[in-house]
Structure formats: structure tokens, C-alpha cells
Amino acid sequence: MICSEAKFDVSDEMKRAHDFKYITAPVIGDASETALVKFYQPIEDIMTTRANYKFAKSKDNSEAKMPFNSTNKYALSIIEQQGDDHHYVSYIKGAPEKVWKYCGRILHEGSYKTIGPEERENFDKVNLRFGKNGERVLGFAMLPLNK
């Protein structure tokens, strides 16, 4: 939700209707973004989630983010997020092959694992299989930015 700017196009009056369901509500955003917000909304309100994350500021005092564009094929956001060894976290969402090229490790069964030849081969197979089936697939990654 942090790298997405999609939002529901509904009024408060529509939300109060007894038969209102987010799954059928209109969304401002493309098909992938619409699917994301409709998937996530039952977990937690998307606007509540976004309010819990504060964007870092760029040198010009703008939010540190790069919206999705068709050249890069990903969106990137830098959030103020404290951890033991970091003040910020970078989140990226986009075409799996674009996101994957920035990754050096994966979270596997609760532990981080360095990406090796086997993981690369598995990724290529799965990405090709989904692509051949016409599936729309997104990649997600995050990187704590050291102090």
C-alpha cells in the first residue's frame, strides 16, 4: 500500500449503504492497483495503513518516492522507519524481473537466504510460467537503509 497511490472512489454516503462492499467499489488506479487495494482493504483500511508510514523527504523537501512509470516498470518509496540498524526503509513494487534484479536475498521460511543460482533459476521458471499464462504478476521488496 505504501508504493500505491490507488484509492477507492466512494463517498461516505456510499460507505454507509447497507449493501456496500469494497470488493465491488470503484477504484481510481489501473487494473493492478485496483486488485491490490481490493485485496488489502479487508486486512486493514488502505488509508489507515498509509497514514502509519511517513515518507522521508528529498533535498527539495518533496516526498522521497518515485511513482510507477512504464520505462522503469516499478514504483519506489522511502519511509521513515526506525530499526536497530536503520532510520529509513525503501519499498519497491513493480515488474518481477525489475524488482528481482535489485535483490540479493530472499525471505524463505522466516529467514533471509542469499540468492544463488538455484533461486535465480526457480525465479526465471516461475516468472516465465506466469507470463505464458497471461497472469499479471508484481514483485515486492524492501531494504532497510543503514544509519
What's this, in brief?
The chain is an alpha+beta fold and 147 residues long. Helix content is 29%, strand content 29%.
Overall description:
The protein folds into two domains: 1-52, no CATH class; 55-147, Calcium-transporting ATPase, cytoplasmic domain N (3-Layer(aba) Sandwich), CATH 3.40.1110.10. Helix content is 29%, strand content 29%. It has five helices and nine strands, in the order βαβααββββαββαβ. A hairpin with a 7-residue loop joins β4 (65-66) and β5 (74-83).
- The total number of structural domains is 2
Shape: globular
Q: Mean pLDDT, nearest integer? A: 92
CATH topology assignment of the largest domain: Calcium-transporting ATPase, cytoplasmic domain N
Topology, number of strands: 9
Helix content: 25-40%
CATH class of the largest domain: Alpha Beta
Cα end-to-end separation: 25 Å
Query: Biggest sheet, in brief?
Result: 5 strands, antiparallel
Structural class: alpha+beta
Low-confidence stretches: none
Q: State the helix count.
A: 5
DSSP strand (E) fraction?
A: 25-35%
CATH architecture of the largest domain: 3-Layer(aba) Sandwich
Order of helices and strands: EHEHHEEEEHEEHE
By CATH's scheme, which homologous superfamily of the largest domain applies? Calcium-transporting ATPase, cytoplasmic domain N
C-alpha Rg (nearest Å): 17 Å
